[in-house]
Amino acid sequence: MRAGAYPAFALTAFQSRLAYRNQVWASAFGELVISFAFIAIWTAAFAGQVVVDGATLPEMITYVMIAGLLYWNTDRLINDVGEAVRTGDITIFLLKPLSYPASLLATHFGHYVFDQLVVTLPVLLIVGFSVGLLPPASLFHALMALPFWALSWLMLFTLGALCGLLAFWLLTAFALEWFLKGIMALASGAIVPLWFMPGWLSGILGYLPFAWVSYYPTAIYLGKLDPPATFLYFGIGLAWLAALGGFLAWLWSRARHRLIVQGG
Amino acid sequence: MLHNITLIPHLVRMYVRTRMEYRGAMFLAWLSQGFSYGAMYATIALIIARFDNLGGWQWPDMALLLAFHLLAYSLGASLSFTQFRDIEEKVRLGTFDAILVKPVGPWTFLVFSGLNIGYGGHVILATGLMAWSLTQVGLAWSPLLVLYFVAALISAAMLTAALMTMIGTTALVWVRSRHLFSIFFGFWELARYPLNIFPAPLQMLMITLAPLAFLAFVPVAVILGKPVPLLGAWAPLASLAAGPLCMLLAVFHWRWCLRNYQGAGG
Q1: Which of A33, A64, A163, A180 to probe by mutation at the B interface, max B CB count within 10 Å?
Q2: Partner residue facing B29 (CB), from A45, A175, A198
């Protein structure tokens, strides 16, 4: 199949979400409530202190909002793979002249764009106008935040797809989804940035791929890394992505040869 | 009524047996959910470790709040969440009609034929964390406090079950209701934190329209002797009444929805 056919998967995913309007406003409302909760949590934590570990309260509010934008829910991706394995629908994909991981990437990119435009963007605007969000630290940091955003999305997709493919061996995706959720809560920096963690912990988490999902892109946006460090961490992130992408390709090559379809 | 009650052990036994056929997957799910909640609580512990407290709550107080929240939620949700979340699918496919003609009350059948034992991981983590936190907070135990603790936990579990029942049952008249769970879980997440850190309108909302403050904050604040915003001295009584009152409301809602159920069309 030509690469040009994959955008159709993204478009279909985007359009399919338009059909569930109630889900959209409910998700946006839920997201808004959680956003204000996190703002309240950090406001209470700072309790009048102006700067803690080099970060101010407005920076932390911007941090939680941007980090939330970057950390998308991988449940749908892992569930899709798990359901395809459980029901045997995966065989339909194997018969098609397409790469299953690539079709997943296109489909979930469509879902991501939909969520950003319809759920996250309105929430960001409301928070921006009511509480206030900081602009990027400089033009350099603004420009570098964009490739870090792309890297973040690809990293989380790869991690989610790896968890999903493990369902070929475990025959359940439910537990994998929860394991990834737990790891991401702590290691991605989406809730607590690495600069608030003890040195030994941030030293470890700072070199694991999960930190490239939320922590580094947001830290770049806020100007917490200077230009040489920005390029260095971008390079390390690319190396992680290449390694995880290679592992995903290898796992997929193994998974499709050990497929068991019950009752077939 | 008696017939319904005698059927309950059979319904539960049947469901547990089906789940135990896949015990590897079930224990893995317990482990993964326990791990996930543990990681989330670790992030809260990190915030408190760095900032000393959150709205005047130290880590042992927060640990008790989180444990109470998780235990009350899992007890209530085991009787309601998956059962009423999936009601939408049953209405859409028409399989809910089959439940209506069974020689057993539809509520009894729905709740107990799907009694979710998947919350084992939640319960183990919550009781462990609760046991630890209770040794740290230095409570002056008395028979009255023990009684209040148990009653407040039951009330909070009833509150969870009632809210989930009402949300899920709405599908009988709206056909869809799953999206409403997104709103529930938004407030549910807030209920993990001390209510006093939120702005006043949100505090009011969490005590009235979305009464999830009664899930953990109000009872735990009463147990620890901390002030409860808006409720003050009424907090102990309100926390005990919230669950039964919401359950009563859920009963009326369930009956009203059943009376107005017309299927998904066709």
Answers
A1: A33
A2: A175
Residue A193 to chain B, least CA–CA distance (Å): 10
Contact by Cβ (8 Å): B254, B165: yes
Give the one of A23, A175, A198 whose C-beta lies nearest to B28's C-beta. Answer: A175
Buried/exposed A27-48: b ≥16 CB within 10 Å, e otherwise: bbbbbbbbbbbbbbbbbbbbee
Q: What are the phi and psi torsion angles at A52 (to 5°)?
A: -130, 125
Summarize pLDDT for B172-224 with one digit per residue, the tens: 988 888 888 888 998 999 999 999 999 999 999 999 999 999 999 999 999 99
Does A127 map to a domain? yes
Distance from CA of B139 to the nearest CA of A (A): 25
Query: What pLDDT sits at residue A262?
Result: 61
Tokens for B94, please give them: 């028409």
- B51, A45: Cβ pair inside 8 Å? yes
DSSP β-bridge partners for residue A51: A56
3-state secondary structure of A232: helix
ipTM of the complex: 0.90
Position B265 scores a pLDDT of: 64
Residue B266 has what pLDDT? 53
Instruction: Please count the other Cβ atoms lying within 10 Å of the Cβ belonging to residue A96.
Output: 10
Q: What pLDDT, on the 0 to 100 scale, is given for residue A170?
A: 82
Answer whether residue A185 is part of any domain.
yes
B214 CB-side CA count, 13 A: 33
* Token pair listed for A4: 């040009």
Interface-testing mutation among B43, B189, B196, with chain A (most A C-beta atoms within 10 A): B43
Classify residue A218: in a domain, yes or no. Answer: yes
Cβ neighbours for B207, distance < 8 A, ≥ 6 positions apart: B195, B213, B214, B218, B230, B231
User: Given CB atoms, is A192 within the 8 Å cutoff of chain B?
Assistant: yes
Runs of H (alpha helix) within A47-138:
57-70, 75-87, 90-95, 100-114, 121-130
Which pLDDT band, with edges at 50, 70 and 90, does B76 fall under? very high
Which span out of A95-104, B50-59, B66-75 was modeled with the highest average pLDDT? Answer: B66-75
Give CA–CA dist B104/B185, Å, rounded: 31
The domain in which residue A82 lies consists of: 3-255
**Statement: residue B108 has pLDDT above 50:** yes
pLDDT at A85 over 70: yes
In a domain, A262, yes or no: no
Query: Residue A107: is its pLDDT beyond 80?
Result: yes
For A19-68, how does the pLDDT look when each residue is reduced to its tens digit (9 = 90+)?
777 778 888 888 888 898 899 999 999 987 889 998 999 999 999 999 98
CB count within 10 Å of CB B146 equals 11
CA distance readout (Å), A11 to A15, A72, A96: 6, 18, 19
The domain spans of chain B are: 2-259
Do the Cβ atoms of B47 and A170 come within 8 Å?
no
